[in-house]
Specification:
globular; Chloramphenicol Acetyltransferase; alpha+beta; 8-stranded mixed sheet
Amino acid sequence: MPVPDLDTTLNRLETVVSAIADAPTLAATRAAVESFRTGAGPELHRRLLDDAEERAAAGSSWLAEGWLHDYLDVRDPLPLATNVGFQVRLDSPASGLDRAADLVHRAVRLHLDHVHGRTPEEVDARGNRLSPAQWEFLAGGVRMPAEPRDRILAPARPAAGPHEIGVIVSDRIWALRITDDAGEALPVAALRAGLERALTSAKEVPRESPIPLPHMSYLPAAAGAAVTGALRAEPAGAAIFDRIRDMLFTVHLLHRTPRRADAALRDCAFGPGNAWATKPVTYEIGLDTDWACLHVEHSTVDGATILTQIARMQAAEPALPDGSADPGPAAPAPEELTWSPPAELLPVLRDALESYRDRARDLAVRLVKVPAPDTSDLGVKVSADAICQLILTIAQKLAYDRVRAVYEAVDMREYVRGRTECLRAVTPEAVAFAEALVAGEAEPAGFAAVMAAHRGWVKACKSGDGMDRHLWALRRTAAAAGEEPGLFEDPGVVAARTDFLSTTSIGSDAVIRRYTFAPTVPNGFGVNYTPLDGEIEYCLSFSSSRTEGHMAFQAALSDAARRLGRFLDEVRAGATEG
């Protein structure tokens, strides 16, 4: 992965700040940029280049290790910080438990394909080979809470197995063997029988532990480290931890799916006990509807990889159990995993979980659908992504009479161990156009400039010439030497990189229908947007108590889309008359 040119990054930073800062703040930022350009910047950039060369020679990149460490340094409960809930489209000819068995069996086969080295190479639309590093999530493992930094633990069992999955039902977890002696998937009838036994046990056998075991994965790092230490200190507890670590994945079987998709997605992402939140992935499957959702621990895997995984599950041959079929003597019995924490830890656990529930209750998820503007016959190259982002910019102006920083994730897996880059969609051109549109003074040239600026950002990010990761790496390089250049504390730079809207998009709902995650700043929004047929869906997450004007912003999205649509209709009509 190339290291961007220092001057290009600093020039781009000035431009980004100019979009959101007033004149005095921008003047101070320009002075800070020049001080960095002629002072600490070149030496930090040289050190970064040397580090990048060493890591490239070792088959890695200047981004990979530090980026992972930043994830592992998160001390908040992961679902309230970096984990993601993905509602996915997984059709099955079956329903109920038969459907659950089909979908879980497909997931088992694909996870085992990776374990046995059969995962196919992935290429993008341009034929570029994509880094395979993120596919390690299919092997299982766990993120272990630790101080001062969490650790990623790989599974310790051999490829031949035996392999297990975790089955979560009603806040409890069962270990279920899902492979034969050769390490291949058991028949789907055996899997279905195991799932059914776990469901029956959850209904008929009282829970033993005073605190549900899956809830212990929803703790902040300090409490999680204490609990994990106590668990691993006991022989029986250590065996439980090892089994959870070695599971390929966990699956949550949901008896009653909330009727509203935003409520169900919120529960999957933030509801305690619905996942093992430190495992790479938990598949959530409704037994009463066609609901399917993934709870993903984000440290090692990004949304584009999840998209490919679900697309492969969609394409996999359905595994349809015959409810009357004998699962055979090889059908495994699920084993519930239970552990009672030491008495001295119970108050810590209860307080931490009550704090989690309070914070989770404050997070809201809302779906806002707006009319998609007609972008045909404009004589300008238009992208759906740029339109979705422009609506967000106009909505900010309408709701708050100002525009704050926006983060958009761009997939970078075409580079060795690539993750994502940040596209700064709030450009000076977008802000100028939003202000003009709200004032009734927008011009076609202003719209064309917005599209061109967005297109320039996409090209810069995909060519490894983005801004944010470079600045992040320069700051880490400085910190490693005990240095803190003033540039990174400059108010304009801080404002330009404090993401009021943290946004991301997959591009359609054919595979992933929508997804949600906690906002990255307490008063901001997490935003997933999806272009649909004739409309655009915005999936918003926000704090009910701390996010400023969240109702006004939701209303402003529809207003912004209609205003933009009317403007483009007028442009089209004017071009026709001309």
